Structures are given as C-alpha cells and as structure tokens.
C-alpha cells in the first residue's frame, strides 16, 4: 500500500519538459522545464517566455512536450505562458518543418518570417520598485533584499547592473520571485506589442430615457448653449445610427472639446471605449451580379472537372480574359462549403484594384495581409483567421503562414511573378510552391493563374502533374493589342538630337491625348540616370559598400546605391582627374518623365516606381488618380505590369527592351517575354484596340517576335529545348551556395575549400566557385557555387542531407573562420 502511494506521488510530481522553437538561426529546438503551476496551461503552438543564453529573453513557440530531460544540458524553467489558446496550429508547424527541410534553413528563421512582429514580445531590461508600497523585507531572501535596497538608492536598475550587484548570471528566477511578490515592476517589461484599436463612443445617460426628461435636460442647459448644441446633435444623430462616435458628435455639433468634457463631467454623457477593426474603412455595398462569357463558363466547368482528379490546376488565360471573375465564382462555391480561401498576389500594394473588386463583392469577409500593414493590423488579421472570422484572405507571399483552420481553396494569381520568391533573409522560400504544399496539408485545391506561366509550371501541366485550362479570349469586346517594334538604331541615324522617344511613339502619344485616352510608358530602371561617368578619365562613382555604380536620383539630388541604400552628393568635378566634364549614361523613370514633359508640355505625368510608392497608401493614391484621369501618362517600372486594369489606356510604350533581353540570367528570355507581354496587356482592355510600341536595337530577336505574335507556346518550346541541353529547370533542380567574407583573399580561399568538398560528393553537378555579377554587397565579398541536380533518378532529399553535412564540416573548419554561407534552393 505504501509503495502504491509512493508511485502515485511520484507520478503527480513528474516534471514536464517542452521543446520550443526560438526565433533564432539555430539548428535545433531547445528544451525547457515547465514549472508545476504552469503544467496545465502547456499546449503545442502556445507562446512561452524563455531565457536563452546569458541574459536574453525571447518569445518561443512550444513545438513538443515530453517527460524526458535533455541529456547534454540542464533545462531552464520557462518564465511564463502567454496564450490561453494555441497561437500556431499543428498544421502550421508541419508547414514550418517542410519549409525548413526543403529550403535548407532553420526552424527559428521560419518562425521569424511567419509570425507578425506584434506577436513577438519586446524584451527590455530595466526594473524599478513598485510605487507607494510597503515592502515586507522579512519575506525576502538575502539576494532579493539586496536588489530592493539597490532600487531604493538608484530608483532603476538594468539587468546587467543586477548581475554585477549579485555576482551571478542566473538572476531571472529572483526577478520572477520579486515580480510574483509584487514588489518590483519591469519598465517597458515583457509586453504585448499588439494592442487592439479603440475608439471613443458617446452614450446619453440612461436616466434621460423618456422625451419629457430629454426636454427638461435641454431646458437646464439654456445658459450653456454649446452643451445644449451637443445634446441636440446627439439626439438628431441617434435617430439615424445606433452608435455615435465622439469625433462624429464633435463634427455634427461644433460644440468643441470643453463643452463635451463638461457634459461628461456632469455624467449627462458617458464615454465608452470600444475595440474597432483597423482593417476596413467605410462599409461597401456588395456587388455580386455579373455574367460569365461562354469561354469563361467553359473554363470554369473545366477547372471544376479537373479538380475532381487533380489537386493543382493551371489556368492559362490571356491578359484581360477575365480570370478574376473566375476566381470570384470559385470563391463563392468554396464559401458555400464554409471553407476558407487564400488568394495570393505577387505584391499586394501593386494589385489594389483586385482588393477593391473583392471587397465590393464579398465585403468584410475579405481580409488583407501584407507588409504595408503595420504590426497591429497584421496581428489583428492573424487573430481573425485563427478564430475563423475571415473567410477570404488576400495576401502577399507571407500570407501562406497564416493559421488557417479549414482551408478549401488556394488561388495564386500571376503565379509566374518573381515577387513570390523571398531572396533575403532566410527562409528563401517561393510562395507558389509553399502554397501548393499548404494546399496538400489541408486537402485544399490550388489554382495557379497567369497569362505567361512560369516554364516550370507549364511543364508540369503538360506532363500531367497539374491540371490545365486555357482561356484564350479576352472578355467582352476587347481584342489583344497591336504590337509593333521600332528600331532605335534607325531612329538614331535619322535624328539630329538624341531622344528616348521614337517618332512613332510620340505620334501615338499625341493621338491618344487628342482622343482623351491614356498612355503607359515602361522603363525597367528607376532613378534619373543609372551612371555618371567622367568623359576625360572614365571615372564612375561607386558605392563604398558594394561593387556597383551609384544611380543619380534627381528627386533627392543624390547618388543612390540600390543594394545597400548608401547615398552621397552628386559630383560636378571628377575626384580622380579634376575634370568638370561629367556625363549621364543611361536613363531611368525620372528622366523619362522629365523629357516627355519637355517635348509635350501639356502631358500630365505621374510616376510609379519604388521611389514614388514608399508611403503606405501612395500606390493606391497614384493608381486612383490615374484611373480618374487626373493624369494622362503613367511612367513606371515593372510595377505597371502587374494586375492593373484601366479602361482608357490605349497606348503602351516600352522605352528600351534590350536591357531586359540582355540580362545575364538563364531566365532572361522567359522573363522578357513575360514582362513585355504583361505590360502590353494593359492596353485596350475595353472596346478600343490597344497599341504597343516596343523600342529596341535588337529588333530581330526571337523574344520580340514571340511577343508581337502573342506566341507563348513558341517561347516555351525554344526555352525548354535550351534548358534541357544546358541542364537547367524544369529538368534540373538548382541550389545556389554563396560564400561571403569581409576579406577578398579569404573569400576565394574559403570558396575553393568548399568547392573541393562539394565536387568530391557531387562531381560534375557542381559549377564554380565563381565571382558573381555583383561581387561585393554591404562590404562582404561573394563567391558562388551552383549545384545542379537532375530530377530523374536522383533523390533530392539525399542530396540535401549530404549538402547539410558538408556545410557543417566547412563551418567547423577553423580555416574558414569569418566566412558564412547562404543556401538558396530554387534560386529563381
């Protein structure tokens, strides 16, 4: 009997341990001990506060629970559990694991990318004594007594001060004890950064219910006319709306803050703070009626039929074919099943028109999630998705990490877009591929849509891995634009003065103005001029941190580095030879804007590039102004190619196509075709026939011919043949490995050592190490190794496992000290 009681007592006292994911680039989860008083609150996916290292405090996510202590180190106690319900779902953790394994990154890096900043707590380190409190010093141990005495003298202590005072590093249990006893507080302590948005509403005291009481109240305020105005305004507003915001009452009554405060002090009015959503402005009327064309209806039927046997379907629809209307119908069908929909866009700020269209259709069921939102707005969407309050989530690439519960459909619009790829920092994931795996985890259907699909996606569709639907007709009466090519070589011969605009383009611009139509001009380089050069000695200003020339921006009057953000004043005198003959070479969107305004003074021009859209709402404002025809010319970079729909645009001018085609990258031709086709697709999206003028030197290039003929199939076939011959995707997988070091000699030596290790393991599959096109960024020199792995007959999992072992061997070699390695799986 005694033995049985002892076993029961032992079971009750079994210590619980948790494996947690820390927001750090460490290769493993970390084990912590759970205090008995917190054991019942433990659940996978909840956030916990933990100490890691000497004195750092972090928010971590519970990954696993167990009763087994770590073998190699003593587990510290978790400090606290933050959530009543799990913030991260088990399905999300499975997605995190997949991203970690596929993209060869760390789980903590995935956590950093996934969680909104407001859900990761701020850790500050100042402590103060609680004000106006008698401390029972007899209840304190010696070390706690020392801390309180020091606080009484200093008023405030840093954690490092407490460490020095006590002569020990482990001080968090002491601080936790003092916090529990209520004798200290942590100023700017571990606090939630997410705070719901609140708004003040005004209520009339319930004692003034009947009309007679209201009349007497107004009479009593005869000598306070401003207060009387406020009450009258309240009574008027209350007839139309149930809730009256403080600001609305002030505006309607004109009474002023002091009069309103007097009414509140007299308890005539009561102020009530309510939580309101940050996500929506005015309520919008839902607009659900539109009729699909015969081609659209056939495509919709085909998508639904193919979803019966395929989890992923590619919709290849030409520009302006009405793909968004098909998405809306599919969303409606999914909502009837009470499922959630994820609608991914390449850059949410660049597709505000689609946001507006979905909002008009589905109202507040649509939630938007992207980096232009502030921390609190992102956290609010996270909570609403977790609770199932938002059914349609429209987002950029990071939206794949939201806590979906019942996901039924994933739409990836413009799936070819490079913006879906995260390049820095890790995890260097591709949102399209991650979304496909997310759909697999939820048994959801995935629709990929594009007028110019990525070659890998089109290959998978042709091979039968994905379903395939083609929509080759434009919606309504619109037809594909008329595309013509103008030779810049011939134009230069015929002109005395050099201009960026051919005669044909200028003529079409003027014709458009005469017909009260609009023009889009595309130049895929921002700034005023890409390079300054001394005509005497050839000197070019370069970035002090990167191996690139500086770009002149006329708007700021400075030279900018587009890699690290370095800026310096423009030069008028060459610092090398003293010459004053400084020339501009090349041109960007700023210079195009300036020259056109000089040639055609009546042109009303707006510019759409990274520099003009840095503000939260700047993109939407520019697009709205252009859509309302306050401007008749839009000059922009590739931003103008993505998801924009303007009824009055009839002319597109591509200022210089050669810079796209001649870029040194294996996807240059594919991307040139895609970008030129997408930009061209902005023209003639209603009844008018659009005209596209492509200016180029290499007018006979096959890509330009394919764009003129709208011939995607020909582009795909020629590209596929070349890629198969030269061992590139979709026939081979690529893994890019960058070796970086602050010393140029060292980076070459380290890269050579890694290259030898890789070639011993993978042989001819390894290319390099080589110096990349930009060989230094942010003061780090770079060497690159490319690993090509055939898709047929080779296990990519085994390749990645072997590569991981090699990288560990490389990093533990003392000869490679100071070097670090970046791995990018599918670096395109």
Automatic annotation (TrEMBL):
* One protein family per Pfam: DEAD
Q: What class of enzyme is it?
A: isomerase
Q: Which UniProt keywords apply?
A: ATP-binding, DNA replication, DNA-binding, Helicase, Hydrolase, Isomerase, Metal-binding, Nucleotide-binding, Primosome, Zinc
Origin superkingdom: Bacteria
Q: What's the Enzyme Commission number for this chain?
A: 5.6.2.4
Keyword presence, DNA damage: no
Query: Could you state a single Gene Ontology molecular function term?
Result: zinc ion binding
Tell me its cofactors: Zn(2+)
| All copies of domain Helicase C-terminal, residue ranges | 569-723
Q: Which residues bind Zn(2+) 1?
A: 534, 537, 574, 577
Query: SMART domains per the record?
Result: DEXDc, HELICc
Positions annotated to bind Zn(2+) 2 = 543, 546, 561, 564
Q: Gene3D superfamilies annotated for this entry?
A: P-loop containing nucleotide triphosphate hydrolases, PriA, 3(prime) DNA-binding domain
Family, per the entry? Belongs to the helicase family. PriA subfamily.
Query: Record's NCBIfam families?
Result: priA
Name of the molecule in the record: Replication restart protein PriA
The species this protein belongs to is Olivibacter domesticus (Pseudosphingobacterium domesticum)
